[in-house]
């Protein structure tokens, strides 16, 4: 038997953890370049090239984490995969269309004549916007348990807008860290503008989950759970206020010190929000309908897939860390030969 030391009942939890890790890393890594793409609409022509240069070595590989996360959902929880993606068919199609547009525009803008380049910049922006909106809508609608009501769709649409802001915040933080001068100062202003809508999205999700599920409400607000969990919203609020003060202090600086702080703070904000959401959902993959164990494939199949994941996942992690290490430092202007 493959991996005999792992108990059968632990396998669904391991796969849930791996899937959650893959989706979190996707949100952080591809989120930053989706955010840069969304922000391109506000940038000058020369700044657009620098923005693309800042994500050029990473953006395509970042999507690997989305493929891994959805792949794990398919092989480890096939019944839930069918229900979730069936209910989200339209936003998934929009997400794929956005990612395709981004990929095409990224390559074509390099080879396009000067008078065609603005078109491909606009396509790259549109693809980034569609992909961000679709991801937020998918999460929002999932949290309503796919309720067929206008309220559910409006909530999902609002979370879609907040996802755009969250990714813009990540992208702006990345640009603050990777650029200098005028573009860096513009990124500081973009980050301040995106911060509060991102915070509104986190607050909306935090309020919606206990409304959707009495079980979630009891997990958060019953005693003594409330005392143990109170640091999560307190830290989140403090982090938002701290980021606002840090960004305000960066305005007008000729040489921004601690330029990594906004990006690192945004990453921590995403991690806190994701951890709180994971706690709310556990142990259900479909809210109050299907647990990880009920949705999981047979233990024999999970062991085979896990053996492969134990090889593939470290390789992806090492490659990702290595690529970011090699291309660390300030972005340099694009040169095409």
Task: Provide structural commentary.
The structure is a single chain. The protein has 337 residues and is mainly alpha-helical. It has one domain: Formate dehydrogenase/DMSO reductase fold (Up-down Bundle), CATH 1.20.1630. It has 15 helices and two strands. Helix 1 runs antiparallel to helix 4 and helix 6 packs antiparallel against helix 7. The mean pLDDT is 90.
Strand-residue proportion: under 5%
What is the ordering of alpha helices and beta strands?
HHHHHHHHHHHHHEEHH
Shape: globular
Distance between the termini: 54 Å
In DSSP terms (H or I, runs of 4 or more residues), the helix count works out at: 15
Q: What is the count of β-strands?
A: 2
The rounded Rg comes to 21 Å
Oligomerization state: single chain
Low-confidence stretches: none
CATH class: Mainly Alpha
CATH topology assignment: Formate dehydrogenase/DMSO reductase fold
Mean pLDDT: 90
Read across the widest sheet, the strand sequence of neighbours is 1-2
CATH architectural arrangement: Up-down Bundle
The structural domain count equals 1
Structural class: mainly alpha
């Amino acid at each position: 038997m493959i991996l005999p030391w792992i108990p059968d009942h632990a396998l669904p939890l391991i796969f849930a953890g791996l899937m959650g890790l893959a989706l979190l890393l996707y949100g952080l890594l591809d989120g930053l370049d989706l955010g840069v793409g969304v922000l391109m609409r506000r940038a000058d022509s020369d700044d657009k090239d620098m923005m693309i240069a800042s994500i050029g070595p990473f953006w395509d590989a970042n999507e690997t984490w989305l493929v891994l996360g959805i792949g794990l959902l398919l092989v480890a929880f096939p019944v839930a995969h069918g229900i979730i993606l069936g209910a989200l068919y339209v936003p998934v199609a929009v997400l794929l269309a956005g990612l395709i547009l981004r990929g095409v525009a990224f390559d074509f803008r390099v080879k396009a004549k000067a008078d065609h380049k603005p078109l491909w910049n606009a396509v790259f922006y549109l693809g980034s916007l569609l992909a961000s909106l679709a991801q937020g809508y998918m999460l929002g609608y999932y949290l309503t348990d796919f309720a067929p009501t206008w309220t559910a769709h409006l909530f999902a649409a609002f979370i879609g807008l907040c996802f755009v802001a969250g990714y813009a915040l990540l992208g702006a933080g990345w640009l603050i860290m990777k650029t200098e001068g005028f573009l860096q100062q513009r990124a500081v202003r973009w980050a301040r503008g995106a911060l509060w809508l991102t915070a509104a999205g986190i607050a909306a999700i935090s309020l919606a989950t206990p409304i959707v599920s009495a079980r979630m409400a009891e997990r958060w607000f019953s005693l003594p759970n409330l005392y143990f969990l109170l640091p999560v919203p307190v830290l989140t609020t403090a982090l938002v206020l701290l980021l606002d003060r840090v960004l305000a202090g960066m305005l007008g600086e000729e040489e921004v010190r601690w330029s990594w702080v906004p990006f690192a703070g945004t990453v921590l904000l995403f991690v806190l929000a994701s951890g709180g959401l994971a706690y709310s959902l556990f142990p259900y993959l479909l809210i109050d309908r299907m647990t990880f164990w009920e949705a999981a494939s047979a233990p024999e199949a999970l062991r085979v897939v896990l053996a492969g994941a134990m090889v593939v996942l470290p390789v992806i992690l090492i490659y990702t860390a290595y690529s970011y290490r090699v291309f660390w430092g300030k972005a340099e202007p694009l040169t095409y030969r």
